[in-house]
């Protein structure tokens, strides 16, 4: 038994499923998860010393690669001043000012400790601001594990949300309505059926939790128009897309202004950080300024702020960093698509910038339903082959591939060669 197997056996005795987040268990690919010991640049090493090119990057945060020197230096400096005070600190002000400078729609922002917390809080702020209870989400979009958002994917269109998890009472999802991604009519229908009752529409501006699904032309603009017309808050969940597609995220990339935005991942530089923010009139509802309660012991933690600020500053101050990263992504995913096409492998490759995903289906994947047509058994073969070639991709068809500024042309060439070996 290898070290990962040993560790996994130990872990399963004391941690549910042996992991602290389900996708890490490699369940959908039927393998023992790799226990990772170290990361540097575009690489990670497992507990057996195997080296991998890392295309998960901690599910998005490591856009600069592992152990970026600027981030590590700022963390080193911060830890010697102490780890946590539960008090206001200058770094929190610096972070909030930086986010407001970088993302024009953000007039006021609150730090939290995860994307889940950011979304849960933004939803509460939207409900508190509008005085309305109902919310609209999209089948296939994932917004963290707060009760109201754990509705059965694809359930609930025109009806009350059906809990998608045990332990979530129907009362928590009865006000959650599901719409169809890229289908504005499904959203219009919900507004018509619930006049004056919908507090917000929350959307991943690029779906990245059903695999990668891009917004069709006019979809995001249409959501903006519907929310404005109906007095509902438009929330962009940019936990993945924020500071990734562009410095000002998907809202900058696509030119749409949401009322609130949620962040996570990149904003923490690898440390546990989330944030929500946007229009001052909405955020002014949040305690202690307003009546919407939200709190957190480690919110704005100084070490986490140091990491996040350092990462955002590199992204903000490095000339052409997004142009180069997105062009690298365009070249890589185009070549990946070409290899699969020339090998006549039925597939749909969706990508934007440094985010991408291969679906093993002959359908165009534009929403949750079409994503489900993917041959997940074929994906498992693909995953296992790539892992064996030292390429670490998400152990699930319905996740994304993340490129970083640290991935070299050699890394990408090796990855493409591994794909050629798979299709041969
Ligand atoms: P966290 O609570 O995991 O920090 O963020 C929840 C969340 C919110 N919104 C979006 C768009 C997200 O993608 C996420 C979390 N993303 C997953 C990856 N698909 C995290 C990986 C995991 O669950 O372990």
Largest sheet: 7 strands, mixed
Distance between the termini: 31 Å
Low-confidence stretches: none
**Heteromolecules bound:** ligand KE4
**CATH 2nd-level architecture of the largest domain:** 3-Layer(aba) Sandwich
Number of domains: 2
CATH homologous superfamily classification of the largest domain: Type I PLP-dependent aspartate aminotransferase-like (Major domain)
Q: How much of the sequence is in beta strands? A: 5-15%
Characterise this structure.
The protein is of the alpha/beta class. It folds into 2 domains: 3-67 and 320-423, Aspartate Aminotransferase, domain 1; 69-317, Aspartate Aminotransferase, domain 2, CATH 3.40.640.10. The protein contains 14 helices and 14 strands. It has helices at 3-14, 69-79, 90-102, 115-130, 170-173, 184-193, 219-230, 249-254, 280-283, 302-317, 321-342, 368-371, 376-388, 409-423; strands at 36-40, 43-46, 51-54, 108-112, 134-138, 176-179, 198-203, 233-237, 260-263, 274-278, 348-352, 355-359, 391-392, 401-402. It has a 7-stranded mixed sheet with strand order 4-10-9-8-7-5-6, with helices on both faces. A 4-stranded mixed sheet has the order 1-2-3-13. A 3-stranded antiparallel sheet has the order 11-12-14, covered by helices on one side. α3 runs parallel beside α10 (302-317) and α11 (321-342) runs parallel beside α14. The model has no long low-confidence stretch (mean pLDDT 96). Bound molecules: ligand KE4. Ligand KE4 binds at residues 21, 23, 59, 114-116, 119, 142-144, 204, 208-209, 237, 239-240, 264, 274, 399.
